[in-house]
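Report of the visiting student (M.T.), summer placement. My assignment was to run the structure pipeline on a short list of targets and document each run. The first record concerns 40S ribosomal protein S6-2.
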Amino acid sequence: CFRGHGRRTGERRRKSVRGCIVSPDLSVLNLVIVKKGEHELPGLTDTEKPRMRGPKRASKIRKLFNLKKEDDVRTYVNTYRRKFTNKKGKEVSKAPKIQRLVTPLTLQRKRSRIADKKKRIAKAASDAAEYQKLLASRLKEQRDRRSESLAKKRSRLSSAAAKPAVTA
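After the run finished, the structure tokens were exported:
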């Protein structure tokens, strides 16, 4: 119902229908049958069509059929399994692939992922420790070299200071 708002160009007009005459410029009407009359509407209320698609996600299937976590979801998907004949004339059935289904394979993948992560963390820690050890040894070597060079310098200076006193 566009009361206060204008429609964009090319946008279809939407009207609420309550037993009123609908303008002919509408191509599609979405209606809901509220009360059933004495006669059947041909092609609408005389045949019953089952809903083709159900939920695909495991948790939503559980919610629909009021299942516990332990119950097997796969058996309930068969309620909306489609049976049809293929081009070769063979009778086949199709059901949606359930997503987020906890299977032994998914649990195994999860375990391996966690194990890999732990392995990576341990390797990083050992590498860091090794690097710290290397760094400490290099710093020690540098300190030793510096102290040696300073000692040489001191000895040179002391010997240079002592020599003029000997000659005098």
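The chain has a mean pLDDT of 85. The helical segments are 58-65, 74-77, 104-167. I thank the supervising group for their guidance throughout the placement.
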